[in-house]
Specification:
The protein is α/β, with parallel strands linked by helices and 486 residues long. The chain contains 17 helices and 19 strands. The structure holds adenosine-5'-diphosphate (ADP).
């Protein structure tokens, strides 16, 4: 099918109205043979597809297929594996309109973002890792692939999180069983078709759809040598316990409550645009969202006034409309959670602002952009990850206070610093406990830069050279070291 436009997505969904099976060993299983669940468009509540709910048996079949495929795939020279990764990257570019529309319908995020941010980053991730596959033997002598990787991803960047997981795994010579989030499995299923189209050997990538129990079966499976998980801190904790003592390699990318620090010498207009990207990008459903605004006391009221004025111009509405800034939240559960947390903040004494100009659509799971000021550092909304378009603001007086406030969190994923004084920015940056730090910028991602957190934000890095270590076993390198030491 031609890879363009909404009508092609509708035709694709129509062609699969009998339901989607799992993608195992290079083929789709029969959907009618499985338990299944419904996937809906959060912007209007309408059903999109019926998707198989994977059982422990399905996981077992997929792991067996990945195990068989590993024998051949891991033996290919890196430059041979690179060819497939390049082909996948090109195929994603060829279909980027189709994939962007499908992602937007499944998740609720604005088409402007899926088209201009998600899909280009997805393609870039595969191109980048094709390069690593070519360089593997020379850059990582003595390392070998880990084996079969179980990968579990969330719903906020469905195809991008798939790319972050699958591209490095394949580049390093591993095979994969991936479980997409139950809210947003559709682009992963479209990706399975891409794997088939580029002739990726059967079993190298397997996609099993399902819910938490499907993920748990994957985590528990003895044929899996590595688990890579992105999702909530609570489930991350469960997975850490479940894999303890199993010998499985583990990486976790979990929650955050990232500070966005504005000093009194910052370019305030730039900082306001930064805030739009930090917390109103992707409805604030971003693990590294700049969700805690820390502002120097003397400029706080001036900055809040600018933020409120900018909020009035944001457009909330149909995700498929190219002028929409904020689309639908992923699900009713998520909407209820955000609503309850904002109510809690009010109860705890915060002042809540929502733009008077914004009318959220009557149907669908929409939430207006929200600013909470006068927030106490120990209050619930200052501490808990909201994962919605809600910014909480607090003030500080000195750089030391800013650092203390910024680090006063269970998380440590990202941070953003705004100041025209580079010495001050670099000094503060070095004292922040966060995996990624941006200066006069926010939410910038690149396939070449390792991403990941400290503390309850998880461990392990994704992207670049650091990310590849997560998919390589180092016993070969250690053995070589021992040889050299003799
Ligand atoms: P969120 O709160 O962002 O939905 P979750 O952590 O609940 O994040 O879900 C992220 C992914 O983890 C999803 O694919 C989900 O199905 C999966 N998952 C949920 N519970 C478990 C579990 N106990 N073991 C493994 N995977 C799970």
């Amino acid at each position: 099918p031609a890879p363009e436009g909404n009508e092609h997505v509708l035709a694709w969904l129509e062609a699969h109205k009998g339901g989607f099976g799992h993608f195992i060993d290079g083929r789709f299983t029969d959907p009618s043979a499985s338990k299944s669940f419904k996937v809906a468009n959060p912007a209007d509540g309408k059903p999109l597809a019926q998707v198989a709910h994977g059982t422990a048996q399905d996981i077992d079949k997929a792991v067996a297929a990945a195990g068989r495929a590993f024998k051949g795939w891991s033996k290919l020279p890196g430059h041979e594996r690179a060819k497939y990764l390049y082909a996948i990257a090109r195929n994603i570019q060829k279909r980027d309109r189709f994939l962007a529309v499908l992602e937007t319908m499944d998740n609720g995020k604005p088409i402007r973002e899926t088209r201009d941010i998600d899909m280009p980053l997805v393609a870039r991730h595969f191109y980048h890792h094709a390069g690593w596959a070519e360089l593997l033997e020379s850059e990582f002598p003595g390392y070998r692939p880990v084996g079969v990787c179980g990968q579990i991803i969330p719903w906020n960047f469905p195809l991008l999180m798939l790319a972050w997981k699958i591209a490095p795994a394949l580049a390093a010579g591993n095979t994969v069983v991936l479980k997409p989030a139950e809210q947003t499995p559709l682009t992963a299923l479209a990706f399975a078709e891409i794997c088939r189209e580029v002739g990726l050997p059967a079993g190298v990538v397997n996609i099993v759809t399902g819910e938490g129990d499907t993920g748990a079966a994957l985590v528990a499976h003895e044929g899996v040598q590595k688990i890579a998980f992105t999702g909530s801190t609570d489930v991350g904790r469960v997975i850490r316990t479940a894999t303890a003592g199993s010998g499985k390699k583990l990486s976790l990318e979990l929650g955050g409550k990232s500070p966005f620090i504005v000093f009194d010498d910052a370019d305030l207009d730039s900082a306001v645009e930064g805030l739009v990207d930090a917390i109103w990008f992707n409805q604030g459903e971003v693990c590294c969202a700049g969700s805690r605004l820390l502002v120097q006391e003397g400029i706080a009221e001036k900055l809040y006034a600018k933020v409120r004025a900018r909020m009035e111009t944001l457009r909330v509405g149909s995700p498929l409309d190219k002028s929409t800034d904020i689309g639908a939240v992923v699900s009713t559960e998520q909407l209820e959670r955000i609503t309850a947390l904002v109510a809690k903040g009010k109860e705890e004494g915060a002042e809540v602002f929502q733009p008077s100009s914004i009318q959220v659509p009557g149907t669908g799971t929409f939430f207006a952009p929200t600013l909470m000021t006068g927030v106490e550092p120990a209050s619930t909304v200052a501490v808990v990850e909201i994962f919605g378009p809600v910014l909480v603001a607090m003030t500080f007086r000195t750089p030391d206070e800013a650092v203390a406030l910024a680090n006063n969190t269970r998380f440590g994923l990202a941070a953003s610093i705004w100041s025209e004084n580079i010495n001050r920015s670099l000094d503060v940056a070095a004292r922040l406990k966060a995996g990624v730090i941006w200066i006069n910028a926010t939410n910038l991602f690149d396939a070449a830069a390792g991403f990941g957190g400290y503390r309850e934000s998880g461990f392990g890095r994704e992207g670049g050279r650091e990310g590849l270590y997560e998919y390589l076993a180092d016993d070969g390198a250690k053995a070589k070291g021992k040889e050299a030491a003799k």
